[in-house]
Amino acid sequence: MILRLLDSVPIGPRFSNLALQALLVLLKKAPPQGRKLLSIGTTSRKDVLQQMEMLTAFSTTIHVPNIATGEQLLEALELWGNFNDKERTIIAQQVKDKKVWIGIKKLLMLIEMSLQIDPEHRVRQFLALFREEGALSLDFENGLFANT
């Protein structure tokens, strides 16, 4: 997300230095007295942020691996709290004994998209989006996705 804000592209060193400087100033600025502020940045290109000297603006870096099992998916859905117990049970039935593979950022996007749907259809929509992304295996053989 940060690289998109900076208009960074993978071909050549092009990016918006003006946007980079503005972000650095804002990230380093202390919140108003008596207030706390949490800034979260996501990237799949930590090396680029390091080159831009942007990593120092964050107090910590956390690597979040892709979700790889149905159990991990259900745990993430429970932590976010966007689906109720009944909805998570339906999702659990669909991912039981199946291999999943999705990054947390993409999962959050799919959750948000499905929450825009009528509650009666949101689980079906979430599962459809999940499959469309190729995040759920149809058959799992020899450690490879059969549908990708």
Automatic annotation (TrEMBL):
Annotated organism of origin: Myotis davidii
Cofactor(s) listed in the protein's UniProt record: Mg(2+)
GO BP annotation list: Golgi to plasma membrane protein transport; intra-Golgi vesicle-mediated transport; SNARE complex disassembly
Subcellular location per the Swiss-Prot or TrEMBL entry: Cytoplasm
Record flagged with keyword Protein transport: yes
Keyword Acetylation: no
Role noted for this protein: Required for vesicle-mediated transport. Catalyzes the fusion of transport vesicles within the Golgi cisternae. Is also required for transport from the endoplasmic reticulum to the Golgi stack. Seems to function as a fusion protein required for the delivery of cargo proteins to all compartments of the Golgi stack independent of vesicle origin.
Segments forming domain NSF AAA+ ATPase lid: 66-133
Keywords recorded for this protein, A-Z: ATP-binding, Cytoplasm, ER-Golgi transport, Hydrolase, Magnesium, Metal-binding, Nucleotide-binding, Protein transport, Transport
Reactions catalysed, as given in the entry: ATP + H2O = ADP + phosphate + H(+)
Cofactor-binding details, from the entry: Binds 1 Mg(2+) ion per subunit.
Protein name: Vesicle-fusing ATPase
EC primary class: hydrolase
This enzyme's EC code(s): 3.6.4.6
InterPro entries, per database record: NSF_ATPase_lid, P-loop_NTPase, Vesicle-fus_ATPase
Top-level taxon of the source organism: Eukaryota
